[in-house]
Amino acid sequence: MERLWMRMHSLSMKSSNLNIMKQDTKTDNHLITWPELCKRFKTNIEIGLNDTQIMKRQKKYGLNRLTPPLVVPQWIKLCSHTFEGFAMLLWIGALLCITAFLIERNNLENLYLGIILIVVVVCSGLFSYLQESKSDAIMESFNKLIPQQATVIRNGNRLTVNAETLVPGDLVEFKGGDRIPADIRLSTTTGCKVDNSSLTGESEPQTRSAMDSDPNYLESRNMAFFSTNCVEGNARGLVINTGDRTVMGTIANLTTNLEQNETPLSKEIKHFIHLLTIVAVTLATIFFIISIWIGTSTMDAIVFFIAIIVASVPEGLLATVTVCLSLTAKRMAKKNCLVKNLQAVETLGATSVICSDKTGTLTANRMTVSHLWIGQQVFVAGDIEHAHIELRRYEPPMNAFEVAAIILTLCSKATFQPNQESIPIGRRLTYGDASESAILKFMEATLEIQSKVETVRQWWPKVAEIPFNSSNKYHLTVHRVDRRNDCSAIVCLKGAPENVLKHCTTYLNNEGQFPINDRFRIDFEGTYRTLGGKGERILGFAWIQLTPNQFPTDFEFKVENGANFPIDGFQFVGLISMIDPPRAGVSTAVDRCRAAGIKVMMVTGDHPITAKAIARSTHIISPFTKLYDKSQSSTPIISTETNNNFDNDHWPDSSLSHSTEELCKRTKDLKGVVLTGTEITKLGPSGLDRIIEVFDEIVFARTTPKQKLLIVEAFQRKGEIVAVTGDGVNDSPALKKADIGIAMGITGSDVSKQAADLILLDDNFSSIVIGIEEGRLIYDNLKKSISYTLTSNVPEMMPFLLYMIIGIPLGLGTITILCIDLGTDIIPAISCAYEPPESDIMNRPPRGDNDQLVNIRMIKMTYLYVGFISSAAGFLSYFIIMEQNGFHWRQLFGIRRQWDSRAINDLPDRYGQEWSYQARMRLQNACQTAFFVAIVVTQWFDLIISKTRRNSIISQGFCNNDVMNFALIFETALTIFLCYCPGLNHSLQLDPLKWSWWSFGLPFGIMLMAIDEFRRYEIRHNPNGLVAHETYY
């Protein structure tokens, strides 16, 4: 109903427009010259737009805000839960019951049955609605990203205006701390850095400049994008796009206009409902026609029609499924997995491919110092942390380590936030970018207590600074030194290693100072390549000491219009490398996924080398996998794993004309590949499909939001169930398109959380594996619950069928059926959700299309095996009680007309006793009660054998499920209450039984357990045999 309403009232784009949105942004606004750009936008770079231009453009382009999506009204959602599937069938039954009562008012049973069915369907619908409803707040989250105010130059005046009034062509200024109000081409910048993490996934702040740096619109440094943040510096530029036409607006529209895929569980339940509905209506119609043909009154035929439907439809099943999913969702929440969409619980269990983000999910999202290269030796950072280096204020440093400590402490903008002295250093919050914060924490841990970072900075105060920028690629600081005859100031340099080395003439090791020579350069390049190949971010650092003769203590250092102090001739001290380390346990979790037949792919916006290194360390790329890596680095680091089977400039199938088989032959030695976003665009959908088919282990690097979406769709075209993790706004289209979207609870944006189906509260990939196990477990347990529930359908229908076919008195009433379906069976069915997993749950491959929730093997088990045994127990009880009261079983055949006739009050039994209508009804109620009790007794044993589909019940455990133990007690107590409660039993047409009559079902239950234990033994020892093929559901 929801989908129909959306289609009827859809305001979303046509599929052709949606496909256009999926393509990468193609524009030259960041490449053309400023005169050309101003001419294109009809603006002036000095004075901006005038009032007339602004009014015209606001009419043309509208306000600078995002268009809200179409939202399904809550009443439509409620109606879809109340009137779809089984509910509609029960509504029809209820209306027929009430119609029958209105025609034949003396039969209150029809009225009671109709009311009960209405209450059941309304309560089930409300329950499902309350459990599954969730706010459709995706666009509200996008709107939170819109800045409220913007600084704009119009008519030559600097104004502060509402950001919604901006138009293309406006001249805008912003500074550190501002949220960028539109997509802007930058004209001037001063030390400007922006945080693009929500858009591109890059964790480091990105330097902005007025020069274009990349043909790719998203990668170019002269562009600032709507809703990203300026973290430092300031800039001015021209508004290129506003509102829905911005990059963020495109992502928002792409996210909200994507039609979410139907979950596998939803498809299974819908298939099951359709199947059971067809069976129920067909059976009911056939027996309605037969009853009319054999002379039954129309009213009685309608009642039988309703009875067959009631017996065929497990009224409590949907409520049971919803409760099972809710219970699992609560259990997962305790394990840091917050479920937003209940059916996503099972979808996670069916997942065959995980497309995982890198930062914060596979890694700790905490940049950490990993190695240092000092004195031409590589040291592990953890070893140096324990060295406790002590610096002295008035004495020169004694060795290279002390020099390194001075430079790394002073040449930094990072500081600790106040009042954190009692918090461990690694967990303290900082001001500053990730790399500098990592160095700050490392130095705080490394320095002795007498010379901590703030103390050292107070000893040698900063007097001048050249901030890092994209052209210099270094950060330089000047610090005053007191009371030393050999040095009045020190200049510290830190930045890109190759740039720092250009400014150096000597290098320092523990033996002293030496001129830089070829041997040193070879060592430098080798270390750079080794550390860079591990995906670590490397910075070089150097210093120079200024003498008092040239730079006395009162010298004023200046950097404007050129520095008045040396910026060359430095002494190179070393390299420091940092990495966002893999989370503990991720590699184990990935290995468990692989054992479970699940492929794990990395999809990140980071550099291919970094992505490959993390993929190796987390086992996404297996340790012994031969990897094809075509990525080219801007650093001197060249991948040593490039395989010569491929041409360096082209894919093996660059024309995309080779068959998949031929491509497989050419790549038979390779299992993994690192693929960049640019290559994804070149390959196109068909080429991407081939890559996915050929390679088992794939790392997607430098991807855009639209490319992430294309990756998801490519796997889905292959028939995979795809889970996608993400934390940024850029991830939201892929999160929504995926079969299950998984957002990060700590670092995730509000947009990603709203688009996702599941939220990881601890941002840990290992929690996904826990979720997969829970998803597989709930699917197993749903099978068990449904199997248990369906079993009672056969003994519920059989009395009506024999009543119609061979004419015996009715063995089970319609009200009694509802007592089973909505009373005694509900809690036991729900208790299956608490059953612990079987031993092989994470060693099976993901379930395929042939492993349906309800399949023909389950029907055979429940209807032809367990159902018939339960029916036999019921009829044995029925015939024994009839026999004990004088009616031999042969005498009952064909007696239906006389038995049900109110006019006959002298019906003889085999002893010649005459039975009135009222006496016969009391006997019939006793027989129906015995039949009901026999079903309950066999359901005890059915519940126990439902605990496991493959394991022995002995190894699985009889009493390891406390909820199931309670359910057995509850089921028995409820049955006793219904049978023996004065007044209630009469209303339900049940009679108190002799306690000995409860034993009639026990032999059948014991036989059921023995046969099923043998069946499972055969399945375990002969998994390809006939028994497994026919009965393993």
UniProtKB/TrEMBL annotation:
Belongs to the cation transport ATPase (P-type) (TC 3.A.3) family. Type IIC subfamily. One of its GO terms (molecular function) is ATP binding. Residues 28-102 form the Cation-transporting P-type ATPase N-terminal domain. One of its GO terms (biological process) is intracellular potassium ion homeostasis. Pfam families: Cation_ATPase, Cation_ATPase_C, Cation_ATPase_N, E1-E2_ATPase. GO terms for cellular component: plasma membrane. This is Sodium/potassium-transporting ATPase subunit alpha. The keyword Repeat does not apply. It is a multi-pass membrane protein. Keywords: ATP-binding, Cell membrane, Ion transport, Membrane, Metal-binding, Nucleotide-binding, Phosphoprotein, Potassium, Potassium transport, Sodium, Sodium transport, Sodium/potassium transport, Translocase, Transmembrane, Transmembrane helix, Transport. It comes from the Eukaryota. Its main location: membrane. It is found in: Cell membrane. The sodium/potassium-transporting ATPase is composed of a catalytic alpha subunit, an auxiliary non-catalytic beta subunit and an additional regulatory subunit. It comes from Blomia tropicalis (Mite). InterPro entries: ATPase_P-typ_cation-transptr_C, ATPase_P-typ_cation-transptr_N, ATPase_P-typ_cyto_dom_N, ATPase_P-typ_P_site, ATPase_P-typ_TM_dom_sf, ATPase_P-typ_transduc_dom_A_sf, ATPase_P-type_domA, Cation_transp_ATPase_P-type.
